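The data layer described in this paper is built around a simple, fixed record for each protein. We quote a single record here, exactly as it is kept in our systems:
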Amino acid sequence: MLNLPSESECADRLKELVLERGLRCECNDTRGFYWLQKKACFECKNRGCKATLYLKGLTRIRGSKLPFRIWLGAIYLYVIDQNVTATEMQKKLGHGTYSSMWELLEKIKKLDAEMPELQERYKREKDTNLIPNHLLELSWLGFMELFITYEPAEVQDGIWDWLIGF
């Protein structure tokens, strides 16, 4: 089993990173958002709008029912070994359902495969060859952060940054 942070620790850190990047509502109100603890989401401060933004909806994992900590662990395992199997993930993460792990692994592979296209689009739009960390392929993220020598809790910012980068 991996030494993973709790679900609430993962959500708190992800929330901090989202706030650092800044949130903008479709209503273009400059007052921003506040955190609704009861619903675990951000809500627009504009009384006429009241749009809600959930943490998973602000990441590449929108629609997933799996906990943040499972995503964190799965990406960590994928970064240190791109040949990891769903069965290995299931054992190391202590998750009960093989099919969920298989779908998770396939989604991670698909997201990772989309990175070169996103990098090229970023280069064209920004007219630069410098690629931000959130657009790196996961193998590069692991190379740069030396994931193998650290626990998932110690490298989670790199993973969260990759997941919320659009």
Notes: Residues 7-21+59-164 form one domain. The chain has one domain: 7-21+59-164. The longest helix spans residues 98-113. The chain has a mean pLDDT of 87.
